[in-house]
């Protein structure tokens, strides 16, 4: 049994060790440019990111939002990330009272369990790549039965 565990561990190490080396080789290549976009452990409202427990499902969607269009007020139970492919998005957080604008090329780590709303404030269509990490089979969009106080329906 001990030899089996040792073999599995050594095989794992042999498979893992080349990965950082390959990443370094890619960074040094002339044909590939890697540009860091964001590194964080917090959401846009300052919450520590906490991943779902159990079986995690990744859902990737592309949103196309017309100029001036608003998404309904909503919140998320699980981590949601967004990347602005084109346009300008204003996210207004009803719980904190703060708004933030995201432009083409910016990454968003959305607030968890806080009511917020997105609006395309640009003059062109907004294209947004959205990535959800949820418990398998669960939705990550919660709409209010009734809008939070102070917010128009």
Features of this protein?
single chain; alpha+beta; Jelly Rolls; 3-stranded antiparallel beta sheet; 2 helices; 7 strands; 17% helix; globular; Cupin_2; RmlC_Cupin_sf
Compose a concise summary of this entry.
The protein has 153 residues and is an alpha+beta fold.
Give an overview in words.
This protein has a four-stranded antiparallel sheet, with no helix packed on it. Strands 4-3-6 form a three-stranded antiparallel sheet, with no helix packed on it. The radius of gyration is 20 Å and the shape is globular. It folds into two domains: 1-34; 38-153, Jelly Rolls. The protein has helices at 2-16, 18-28; strands at 56-65, 80-86, 88-93, 99-103, 107-109, 116-120, 126-135. Helix content is 17%, strand content 30%. It is an alpha+beta fold and 153 residues long. The N and C termini lie far apart (63 Å). Mean pLDDT is 84; it is low at 2-18. β3 (88-93) and β4 form a beta hairpin.
Tell me the count of domains.
2
User: Which fold name corresponds to the CATH topology of the largest domain?
Assistant: Jelly Rolls
Indicate the radius of gyration in whole angstroms: 20 Å
- The number of helical segments is 2
The CATH architecture name of the largest domain reads: Sandwich
How do the strands line up in the largest sheet? Answer: 1-7-2-5
| Proportion of residues in helical segments | 10-25%
- Through-space gap between termini: 63 Å
Mean pLDDT: 84
How many E strands? 7
Give a short account of the largest sheet: 4 strands, antiparallel
CATH class of the largest domain: Mainly Beta
**Quick one: overall form?**
globular
Contiguous low-pLDDT stretches (5 residues minimum) are 2-18
Q: Find the structural class using helix and strand composition.
A: alpha+beta
The CATH homology group name of the largest domain: Jelly Rolls
Secondary-structure element pattern, one letter each: HHEEEEEEE
Strand content: 25-35%
Protein name: Cupin type-2 domain-containing protein
Organism: Paramesorhizobium deserti
Domain Cupin type-2: 63-131
Pfam families: Cupin_2
